[in-house]
Design a protein that fits this description.
Blueprint: H1 2-32, H2 37-48, H3 71-78, H4 83-95, E1 105-106, E2 116-124, E3 127-134, E4 137-143, E5 146-150, E6 155-156, H5 172-187, E7 196-205, E8 208-216, E9 226-234, E10 240-247, E11 250-252
Antiparallel strand pairs: 1-2, 2-3, 3-4, 4-5, 5-6, 7-8, 8-9, 9-10, 10-11
Helix pairs in contact: 3-4
């Protein structure tokens, strides 16, 4: 009996020791984990204190200045101007409000800035501008044929944005309406002849429209074609009133 009791006691002691060892191990593991809280605080403190601005703040706001390269000067230099010449000529173009000259090219590839040369730039379908150089200096600038700068007239005349750009867009239905209105209108000028109309074209500038066509006696083989143009003014109700007639270069009174 004593033998069994001794064995039992030894087992109980062993289990107790294992349990204690396991608890101690977990506690050691917890105690050995790195403490990151102090490092995070230290890192945050370093970041906030990395750069310290010393000075008094004000409510003053300064205008930002572009850091882009001057495309006017660069383009003019590519045409052969010196840097100083390019800077002076660029002032004239900017004074006129020209948006850019990247699309400008000389109208005569053989002309040089040492003589007389014109440069042309087409911004879009409705806007084309020119500047002309004589002996390495710009003396004339225009937009759609309207003078912006003319040295002979005292220099600066008008800004690019002050030039009226007329509306030119037309829908297909508007073109068809004008075509259908023009044919019977022109019939009044040929009351005794057979008429055949061809080569139609329509143009617009704001509320003024022009219809042009060619007219023959109906024989396709004939060379006796007449060229006609009719001008209309669009009314507030959307209708078109004839205001002018031209046949083969001669103007005629408008017939009712």
């Amino acid at each position: 009996m004593k033998k069994y009791i001794a064995v039992f006691l030894s087992i109980v002691v062993s289990l107790s020791l294992c349990a204690c060892g396991s608890t101690d191990t977990k506690q050691d593991s917890i105690n050995n984990e790195p403490d990151t809280s102090s490092k995070v605080e230290e890192s945050t403190e370093k970041a906030s204190n990395a750069l310290k601005v010393v000075g008094d703040t004000t409510d003053t706001t300064m205008n930002e200045i572009s850091t882009e390269n001057d495309t006017f000067v660069e383009k003019l230099i590519s045409f052969g101007f010196t840097e100083d010449e390019a800077m002076e000529n660029a002032k004239i173009l900017r004074q006129c409000g020209i948006p850019n000259i990247d699309i400008c090219e000389p109208t005569d590839a053989n002309a040089t800035i040492d003589g007389l040369v014109a440069y042309r730039g087409e911004l879009d379908d409705d806007r084309t501008f020119w500047f002309t150089v004589d002996s390495r200096k710009i003396f004339y600038v225009s937009l759609n044929g309207e003078d912006l700068y003319d040295e002979d007239k005292g220099g600066y005349l008008k800004n690019f944005n002050d030039v009226h750009i007329p509306e030119t867009y037309m829908s297909e239905s508007t073109k068809m309406t004008l075509k259908n209105q023009t044919e019977p209108f022109l019939d009044k000028y040929f009351p005794y002849d057979t008429r055949y109309y061809d080569a139609w074209a329509v143009g617009r500038e704001d509320d003024v429209f022009m219809v042009q066509c060619q007219i023959s006696d109906g024989s396709i083989l004939t060379d006796n074609w007449l060229f006609a143009r009719v001008w209309y003014e669009q009314q507030e109700d959307g209708t078109f009133t004839p205001t002018g007639v031209e046949i083969n270069g001669r103007s005629y009174a408008v017939k009712e």
